[in-house]
Amino acid sequence: MKARVLTPELLDSLSPDDPAAQASRRDLRRLHPLLGQIGLWTRWFQENFPVRPPGSLADLGAGDGCLLGTVLLRAYPKGGHGARIFFVDRQPVVPESTLAHLRRCNWLPTIMAADVFDWLEEGPPLEATLANLFLHHFDEAGITRLFSTLAGKSASFAAAEPRRNLFAWCAARSLGLIGCHPVTRHDARVSVEAGFAGQELRRLWHASPGWHLVEQDAGPFTHFFCARKSG
Q1: Which of 15, 26, 219, 225 is deepest in the core (most CB within 10 A)?
Q2: Is residue 195 a contact partner of residue 223, using CB atoms and an 8 Å limit?
Q3: Sign of CA dihedral 24, 159, 65, 71
Q4: Which pLDDT band holds residue 212 (cuts at 50, 70, 90)?
C-alpha cells in the first residue's frame, strides 16, 4: 500500500458511556482472538519473562484493559507475584471486575487517567511496557518522541499494530459481514491506512547501543515491534 495516512478514529472522539463506543469496544474484544493478539502477547510474555512476570508493567492506551487482563492470566496461571500493572489511558474504562480478578491473582493494578507522554516522564521506571493498536495514532515525530522517552524509562517495549497492506485493508472493509458496528468498521479501515510495514518503526528507535530490536509481521493482520535492553 501507499505511505501512511493518519485519519482521526471515531472511538477516540466518543464519550466512554456513548452506546456507539460501548458497541465498538465489544467488537474489539471479539476481534482480539481473531487477529491473533491474545496468542501473540501470551507467547511474548512467556518467551521474554518465562520464570516470573515483569515486576512493573505499563499498558499504554489501555482502553478497557481486557486484552492485557486476559493475556496475563493465561501467561501466568500461578499469579502475578505482586507485580504492578499500570493501565494508562486518557479515558480509561477498565471495569472494576477486571481489577478485582487481577488482585485475586496477586497482581497490583492501577488505573492512570493521563496523557501517555506526561505519565511516562513523571512515572516510575518500568521493567516492561506494551502498546496494542496504539502507535498508529501518532505521526513519526510523535512516535520518535515516545520511543526516546521509553528508552530512558523501560527495560523493554513491545507493540502490536495494524499491518498496512491490501489484504488487511480488504479484511477491515469486510467487518460488517460479522456484524461489527459502523464505528468499528470505520476505525479498522483508517487503522490499517495508518499502520506499519517493513522496518518503519525500527528506524525511529534512536536509542543508545545495547538494545535488541525485532520488527516483523505477526500473522496476516499484525505488525510487531519489540525493543529490549541487552544483558
Answers
A1: 225
A2: yes
A3: positive
A4: very high
DSSP 57: E
Cell (9 digits) for 47 = 518467551
Q: What is the pLDDT of residues 145-158, one digit of tens each?
A: 999 999 999 999 99
Q: Mind spelling out the 3-state secondary structure of 82-143? A: CEEEEEEECCCCCCHHHHHHHHHCCEEEEEEECCHHHHHHHCCCECEEEEECCHHHCCHHHH
Q: Which CA distances in Å does 127 have to 48, 84, 201?
A: 11, 10, 21
pLDDT tens digit sequence for 83-141: 999 999 999 999 999 999 999 999 999 999 999 999 999 999 999 999 999 999 999 99
Q: How far is CA 26 from CA 11, 41, 93, 192, in A?
A: 12, 19, 12, 19
Is the pLDDT assigned to residue 1 strictly greater than 70? no
Mean pLDDT of 184-200: 96
- Half-sphere exposure at residue 91, Cβ-oriented, CA atoms within 13 angstroms: 11
Helix 19-34 to helix 66-75 angle, to the nearest 10 degrees? 30
Query: What angle separates helix 182-193 from helix 19-34, to the nearest 10 degrees?
Result: 60
